[in-house]
Each structure stands twice: as structure tokens, then as C-alpha cells.
UniProtKB/TrEMBL annotation:
It holds the Pfam family Acetyltransf_3. Residues 17-190 form the N-acetyltransferase domain. Transmembrane segments: none annotated. Keywords: Transferase. One of its GO terms (molecular function) is protein-N-terminal-alanine acetyltransferase activity. It comes from Paenibacillus terrae. GO terms for cellular component: cytoplasm. InterPro entries: Acyl_CoA_acyltransferase, GNAT_dom, N-acetyltransferase. The keyword Transferase applies. Gene3D superfamilies: 3.40.630.30. This is N-acetyltransferase.
Length: 191
């Protein structure tokens, strides 16, 4: 689906949620979500000042999404570009989280990963699993990507369950920045 302001917009419909690219209007909700202790505990560095988040949205995240989607539309390789999608409730239109894909330099190649975060008010409802499965389907159906990674802190039980429910296979533990993570992979041929 294409919008008038961006000819390369993306909407992925799932059962209860919609995945769509970040918009400037998401600033307040995205900023508030990244400051929830339940989120920055597992995603340190995401809780930045609102002015920094606005700069990232305007100058990096939205333009890179546009580049990614343009390349997909043209049937070209997305390379190292990231795709950042908001998780929006179908019923209310509320921005409740994000699901993204990008290169994780700390992983051995091919090192494209899936990452996500969801509001504490919307956990344990299956929304994150829907988002992860939606972005995997999109990437495998529309890009040259053949393998995806996920890394999850050992103590993040909910996130480990989301990854396992999304058919990622456990590879082993990996240490990154003095933290131990479970490392998972999923291959296009197995999805």
C-alpha cells in the first residue's frame, strides 16, 4: 500500500496489529515507550532525550526506511539498510511498539537481526509474536534476505518465548558487551 506523501510506504496487516513504517507523528509515543523501565532494561541506549529521538526519526530512521522500501520496490538488494516499523493496534490506531530489522555487527555474517519492543500495557497478548512473524514474512517474501538472527538476554523469558514461537532455532549463547544472550536463527527455506 502506498501513501501520497511517500510512494514507498509499507503496511503489513496481522491479526490484531498493523506494522507500518515510522512517522514523525510517532515521536511522543515512541519516546514514552523507550523510557519504560521494562524496555530500557533490555534495550539500553534506546531511552534518549526527545530532541535526539526527533533527530533520529527525521534524519536517519524515516529516510533509511524510504531507501529500504524504494530498493524493495525496485527489486534491488537492501544491503545493510535497516527497516523500522511501528506496531499499531488495529482496533484503536494506538502506537504500542516497534519491530525492526538491521545489521548487528557483533554477530557473524550473515548478521541481519530482528529486534522489537512493546509497551508494558500490551504484553502477553500475542502482539509481539504477530509483529515478528509479520516482518519475517515480509522480508523473506520481498527481499533477497535468506537468514535472520535474534539475540535475547537469558533472563528475558517473554522475549525468548516470542522468538521460539516464531520458529527461530536456538544456535547457542553469545557474549556481546559483557552480556550473555541466547542466539537464534531462522532460514527462509524453513519458514
Amino acid at each position: 500500500m502506498h501513501s501520497e506523501k511517500n510512494p514507498y510506504s509499507l503496511t503489513i496487516e496481522c491479526k490484531d496489529i498493523i506494522l507500518r513504517e515510522y512517522q514523525l507523528e510517532d515521536l511522543n509515543e515512541l519516546h514514552e515507550l523507550t523510557w519504560q523501565p521494562e524496555i530500557y532494561e533490555f534495550l539500553p541506549g534506546w531511552n534518549v532525550e526527545k530532541e535526539v529521538r526527533l533527530d533520529w526519526l527525521k534524519n536517519y530512521e524515516i529516510p533509511e526506511n524510504n531507501q529500504f522500501l524504494k530498493l524493495v520496490e525496485e527489486g534491488l538488494d537492501v544491503g545493510d539498510l535497516r527497516l523500522r516499523l511501528g506496531i499499531v493496534l488495529k482496533e484503536t490506531g494506538e502506537f504500542i511498539g516497534w519491530c525492526c530489522s538491521g545489521i548487528k555487527d557483533d554477530l557473524p555474517a550473515p548478521n541481519r537481526e530482528i529486534m522489537y519492543g512493546i509497551s508494558k500495557e500490551h504484553r502477553s497478548k500475542g502482539y509481539t509474536t504477530q509483529a515478528v512473524q509479520g516482518i519475517i514474512q515480509y522480508l523473506f517474501d520481498n527481499t533477497e534476505i535468506k537468514e535472520l538472527n535474534a539475540i535475547v538476554l537469558l533472563e528475558n523469558g517473554a522475549s525468548n518465548r516470542v522468538i521460539q514461537k516464531s520458529d527461530f532455532k536456538f544456535v547457542g549463547e553469545i557474549e556481546i558487551d559483557d552480556e550473555i544472550y541466547n542466539h537464534y536463527k531462522i532460514h527462509k527455506i524453513d519458514f
